[in-house]
Design the sequence.
């Protein structure tokens, strides 16, 4: 065989082998792991998409930061809410994007843990993701970024402890003034900022009423009373709650007592109605009368027991009927039924009474007392007030105001201030506010980054740059030149020993102030929790490189949500549900 024939045969063999390879590949069965129609996206582009979704949330809330921050009006199917609280805003937005929901979760966590700093934690997390996005564009591995962020966080926590100011050894009056300053700093960025001195006194007084070992926030009640001036708000050293539903005989009952005996019940005091399927067979009319008399004897026995124990006030979680109401009125006893659970628990804590499920065998030990009980008129409502309780470990703030939205936002502001004072009271540690601590930590991180030779140097520098977003946005929201203000602050922090206390001043054109001397203080635990939560959120989003969406599951979830909305609005299956407002069911990404 000649050389030409050999080459031709060799070529045919190669073509045959290629054909066999292609056919074998085509004949192999496709392995389907996911249901048909399932959407998958993965890789670096998915990380970028998640970061972009988080940035949308950050852009919404960043204008609410600081004393000059703006409010957001969020319309839902049921009502309208005006707020600048980060946790409230993201909760009402009902974010659906799974990665962006991480920001909503850390805001709620910050709100539950320390009560304030919800906007700050989202802004720091968003800025960390923005810095990471640039590193990813340059080809850096997400794991390298995560390792750098965790290292930077460890340095921040160490330096934060060094910058902390402790006031545990201060005198009581000086410590109280520090707590008031912390409350005023929290209220600075709230709707009540013009009344911060008045409400900071109320908040500190309320927290001082609590058990110093527990500091249970649930024992501080806030009652909203529409009407009147905001300055008419006041603190009750004890418990106050709105008058409950009552029958006609209620008006004949006394409305004021001094040192009364109080009984708390979880028991109905009314005639029981028969069940729909109840059946009683009688042979003569006297038997029916005996049944009716037995029912009356049972209710009267309960009422006699309460009267004989010497009770002046009877309160119950369950209804108190018209017969019992009239009986109590005839015997100069005050009663109230359908009292809310939290009010009953606070009453038990304040008066020393024990909640009873029966009136048989009552003793003096289960009764409570207070200095003064009275029913007063507040606006269009009547309130029952228990004052000067001997075991008082609770307090009630009665909040007055005009518009309903104003009072609701004022309550959220007071809740944040109460949480802040509780944490400061418990840990006795504060740091300078106004962006001062963030700039000081940023300076320390930049200095530390210069001692590192590998890629983590620029990651730690990016973390330091992300911390500067707090003073920058504070300056922007106040209408100042943020670049000029940041340059002045960097100079102060770099050259002066006391420069670590300098932050943003929203009340002057200079834009910088010694926040420690200006009493702009924050509990150290707020910054500690914010740094931890923001870093964890950023690392979580950066570690997600694939998202799998099951369309059938999404359709089922949408159908269930629509059915829930119809049931809540009282519509039938064939009736359409009105489309939600702009802030509801917001889809990101």
Sequence:
């Amino acid at each position: 065989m000649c050389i030409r024939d050999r080459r031709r045969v060799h070529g045919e063999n190669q073509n045959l082998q290629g054909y066999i390879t292609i056919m074998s590949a085509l004949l192999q069965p496709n392995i389907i792991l996911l249901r048909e129609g399932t959407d998958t996206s993965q890789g670096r582009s998915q990380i970028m998409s998640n970061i972009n979704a988080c940035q949308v949330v950050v852009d919404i809330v960043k204008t609410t930061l600081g004393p000059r921050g703006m409010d957001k009006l969020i319309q839902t199917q049921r009502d309208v809410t005006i707020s600048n609280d980060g946790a409230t805003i993201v909760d009402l937005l009902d974010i659906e994007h799974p990665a962006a929901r991480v920001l909503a979760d850390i805001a709620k966590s910050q709100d539950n843990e320390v009560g304030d700093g919800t906007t700050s934690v989202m802004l720091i997390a968003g800025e960390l993701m923005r810095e990471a996005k640039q590193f990813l564009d340059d080809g850096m591995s997400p794991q390298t970024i995560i390792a750098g962020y965790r290292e930077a966080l460890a340095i921040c926590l160490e330096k934060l402890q060094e910058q902390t100011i402790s006031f545990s050894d201060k005198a009581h009056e000086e410590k109280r003034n520090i707590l008031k300053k912390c409350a005023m700093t929290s209220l600075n960025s709230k709707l009540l900022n013009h009344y911060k001195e008045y409400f900071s006194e109320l908040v500190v007084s309320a927290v001082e009423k609590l058990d110093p070992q527990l500091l249970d926030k649930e024992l501080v009640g806030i009652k909203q009373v529409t009407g009147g001036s905001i300055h008419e708000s006041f603190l009750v050293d004890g418990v106050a709650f709105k008058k409950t539903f009552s029958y006609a005989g209620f008006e004949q009952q006394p409305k004021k007592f001094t040192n009364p005996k109080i009984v708390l019940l979880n028991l109905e005091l009314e005639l029981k109605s028969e069940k729909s399927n109840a059946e009683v067979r009688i042979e003569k009319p006297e038997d029916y009368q005996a049944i009716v008399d037995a029912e009356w004897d049972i209710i009267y026995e309960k009422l006699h027991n309460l009267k004989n124990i010497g009770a002046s006030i009877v309160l119950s979680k369950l209804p108190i009927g018209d017969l019992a109401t009239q009986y109590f009125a005839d015997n100069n006893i005050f009663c109230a039924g359908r009292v809310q659970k939290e009010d009953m628990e606070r009453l038990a804590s304040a008066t020393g009474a024990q909640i009873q499920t029966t009136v048989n065998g009552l003793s003096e030990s289960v009764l409570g007392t207070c200095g003064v009980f009275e029913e007063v008129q507040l606006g269009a409502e009547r309130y029952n007030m228990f004052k000067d309780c001997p075991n008082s470990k609770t307090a009630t703030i009665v909040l007055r105001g005009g518009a309903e939205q104003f009072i609701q936002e004022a309550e959220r502001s007071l809740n944040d201030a109460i949480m802040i004072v509780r944490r400061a009271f418990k840990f006795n540690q504060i740091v300078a506010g106004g962006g001062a601590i963030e700039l000081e930590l940023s300076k320390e991180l930049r200095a530390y980054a210069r001692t590192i030779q590998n890629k983590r140097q620029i990651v730690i520098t990016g973390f330091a740059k992300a911390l500067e977003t707090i003073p920058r946005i504070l300056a922007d929201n106040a209408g100042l030149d943020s670049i000029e203000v940041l340059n002045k602050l960097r100079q102060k922090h770099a050259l002066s020993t006391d420069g670590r206390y300098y932050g943003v001043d929203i009340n002057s054109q200079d834009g910088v102030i010694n926040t420690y001397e200006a009493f702009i203080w924050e509990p150290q635990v707020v910054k500690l929790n914010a740094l931890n939560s923001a870093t964890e959120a950023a690392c979580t989003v950066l570690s997600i490189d694939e998202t799998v969406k099951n369309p059938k599951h999404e359709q089922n979830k949408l159908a269930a949500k629509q059915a829930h909305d119809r049931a809540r609005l009282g519509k039938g299956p064939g009736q359409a549900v009105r489309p939600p407002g702009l802030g509801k069911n917001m889809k990101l990404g």
Summary: Residues 390 and 443 are 52 Å apart (CA to CA). The longest helix spans residues 3-27. Residues 576-589 have pLDDT under 50 and may be disordered.
